[in-house]
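Q: You know discrete backbone vocabularies at least as well as I do. I have my own habits and do not want them to colour yours. No explanation is needed for now; the record alone will do.
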Amino acid sequence: MAFITFLILMMRGNIMHKPANLLTLIIVSLININIAEAQSLQTVINTIDQITAEITVLQEKLDSLENTRKDSNDLKIKWEPAPSLRSNDKRFEMNIRGRVFTDAAWLSDKDNNTTVKATELRTARLGIEGKAWNNTKYKFETDFSGNNVTVKDAYLQWLGKNGTNIIVGQFKTPNSLDEQTSSRHISFMERASFTDAFQLSRKIGVGISTGGDNWTAKAGVFRGANGSSLENEGSDFAARVTYSPTYSKTQLHFGGSARLRTTSDQSKFRYRQRPHLHLSPKRFVETNRIGSKDFLVGLEAASLNGPLWVTAEIMRLKPKVGLSNQENPIFFGGYAEAGYFITGEKRGYKASKGTWDRPKVISPVNDGGTGAWALATRFDLLDLSSKGYLGGKQKNIIVGLNWYLNRYTRIMVNYNNTKITNASSASINGNDGRNSINGIGLRAQIDW
């Protein structure tokens, strides 16, 4: 009977090239069939066909399980230091991101109007960013500091094949090297005074950008920001260009930006600032709400050679006060900064974005090293007094020490001496409009 079965299978196909049929033959050959009581030849053929079909179904299930196993390896997980997920074809990617800055400050002024001994979570952010279908980037990040939830970046970005990108959502207006650089990578605990005083910030809008390996150009149109409750939010138009050539071993940076901004008469612009440390509860230079429109223009430059960096910016802002008998004032802000890595590292810089970046630590503490140590100093100027408006002039001298335990963890110590003059609009300074503030700030930061 087994011989007859063998002949049947031979007639029905090439047995040696079909493992399923070969397995069928083995099974059938082991069946103890009494020839005398054997069923008809057609019944045997039907039985063989049924067993073959069942084995084929089992093989298909095994193949499906094997494909599932292979598909599970399509996802790549990388820790840098938070998990980064990416498909094998690189069309999809998602990164978990966040940062925590814990600050402490001691601050007092000469007129004994404020004394600060306080701590805060300056930043406590969590978010995601990534790309989809290889030509769409996304980012969403919230800040929980101050026990409030604030949306920071929230946007979609389409990446064009010719290097031209379109971005829609909430993101920073393209102004200033110091403002465009992430707070994770700035030299001091706070940015230059003009960035807050002139309200460089995130807005909801549409932007377009292009660039190359050593240049960038970006412009955008904006109206309001998330959380705004104004019926008329006004509008902003902003643009920035950068060029980053290298000369011998020196990386250079040149840039400029501008912003034209309007608002409603019910919410005119006001200009003010703290004395460097964010924990100061009071602002020692400020104006009233005076501007229904303003125009800002700025220039920026930087040089990076080995462990030494030098950078400077200047901003000019002209508000339109709308009074026929009053000239429009002109306010200024700027800084000059120098820093040096005493352990030999080099400050990070991205020419393709025109911003500072994180340094590469030669000897991280987690590997038994001493980390990276950098000293920096800055002279910072903000002048809000012009044409009879006495918002005040603020001069900061800041000295900072940065200790990078690794690329993602840093300890900062800042000392600032702040001189205030011509600030009669700020009542905290007294009738003479003068004051001086000394402060020490500490920060422990980590990002992922």
About this structure: Residues 41-72 form the longest helix (32 residues). Residues 160 and 425 are 49 Å apart (CA to CA).
